[in-house]
Amino acid sequence: MSGGSGGRCLCGAVAFSVRGPLRDVLDCHCHRCRRFTGHHMAATSVATADLDVRDPEAQLRWYRPVEDAGYGFCGRCGSSLFWRGGDTPDSTSICAGVLDPPTGLRTVAAWWVGEASDYFERSDLPEHTTEP
Question: pLDDT tens-digit profile of 43-96?
């Protein structure tokens, strides 16, 4: 997807725009992403320098369950927004559901399916036991 897209949390307190290209969507089934989103995380990614966050009420919060991962969410409505790994600070993952459509993106793979909940099965995607 080309730049110029954007999105926001449910209440609109945290909004963002993207100047650079977005990666296609990856589904992550790891236990942390499932707990953060309530299902699995379907996320795209962008260069952190190409992500402009508008947060006039200072509602963006970061939860860091481990040293090398941070989950960004709205402190007012609780919307899951971002993920950033300590080993990839130049890249920010964006929860695909908060992007304004049309996104032009497609889901291309699923990661950590070994940690997927027992209700989830989707045989049409390439699956990897852990992150490739």
Answer: 999 999 999 999 999 999 999 988 888 999 999 999 999 999 877 779 999 999
SS3 assignment, position 75? coil
Indicate whether 83 belongs to any domain: yes
In a domain, 132, yes or no: no
Give exposure, 98-108, as e/b (b: 16+ Cβ within 10 Å): bbeeebebeee
In a domain, 90, yes or no: yes
pTM, 2 dp: 0.86
Q: What is the DSSP string of 20-65?
A: SPPPPEEEE--HHHHHHHSS-EEEEEEEGGGEEEE-TT--EEEEEE
How many domains, in total, are found in the chain?
1
Q: CA 120, CA 26: separation in Å to the nearest integer?
A: 15
> What is the model's pLDDT at position 2?
47
Range of the domain at 51: 5-115
